[in-house]
Amino acid sequence: MSRPKISIIGAGNVGATTAHWCAAAELGDIVLLDIPQVGDMPKGKALDLMQASPIMGFDSHITGTNDYTDTKGSQVVVITAGIARKPGMSRDDLLSTNAKIVGSVAEQIKATSPDAILIVVSNPLDAMVQRVLKVSGFPNKRVVGQAGVLDTARYRTFLAMELGVSVEDIQALLLGGHGDTMVPMPSCTSVGGIPVSQLIDPKRLQEIVERTRSGGAEIVGLLKTGSAYYAPAAATTQMVEAIVRDKKRLLPCAAYCDKEYGVGGYYVGVPVILGAGGVERIVELELTASERADFQKSITAVKELVAAMNALPL
Ligand code: APR
Predict the structure, then answer these.
(1) CATH for the 5-145 domain, from 3.30.230.10, 3.40.50.720, 3.90.180.10, 3.30.428.10
(2) pTM exceeds 0.90 for this model
């Protein structure tokens, strides 16, 4: 039996690290693609990773390329292509540049891997995933955004640090957009089954939530030359695994919600069942009044972002 084919578009920090972890977990054979302007860089990274395989003990093949023909027939395509915001660049500049980039990627993938499941990682995520859905014309269950797994992982990390317990014992959930308006769900947060409210006082919990909300910015501030990539790549790898191994994981992902949560046709972070069919189900939770208000605020922010993108000449 052949291995699943996983293509990663954008061989930068997030793309190459995702390739590394997907290979280490033997999730499939991996194609790492970047634009011709970067030359043989994806080939170099792929070869370097292949040479780690005898030591790490994986049999996944990794290929680097600038040619979409090599991605043909992929089961999963991860889109990390894009540019980071540079000084002097407005949010709309970034929105416009990355929307054009992910749009062109979606067109190529539509032609070469019409049955693939697309995982969008490029930022601003909630708008980019909407753009990929539109340009690809794929059914919405086959286009999903990576945000919630990362945000929740950051939250779980901070909770484990606070309590001095294993990260494995922290269960948590965050909803909403990927950004300042993400919605923590204390009712869905527990430590070894104990509700977090019994272990951390509300004020301290709120501080941890705030740190989670600005988790990406904290890393940018430390790195100075780029944004986070280990945790984003780990989050993406978990989503790839859920799909190629049909694990039906319940994970928070940016999924297309229409009637669900009354969103009305936008991507927003919600718990989903992720398996071989992509987003197989959106899980609707009962929200408290304050959670609902926060979620609504988050949806409004996503709608504004998408409206700003749609107003641009793309
Ligand atoms: N097609 C394919 N790759 C492209 C394209 C394109 N049209 N345009 C740019 N790229 C590539 C760049 O050449 C670069 O190698 O995308 C890669 C992006 O890599 P980095 O600059 O290292 O950025 P990274 O840290 O990987 O982040 C990628 O993921 O988490 C998000 O906010 C992050 O939007 C960003 C994305």
Answers:
(1) 3.40.50.720
(2) yes
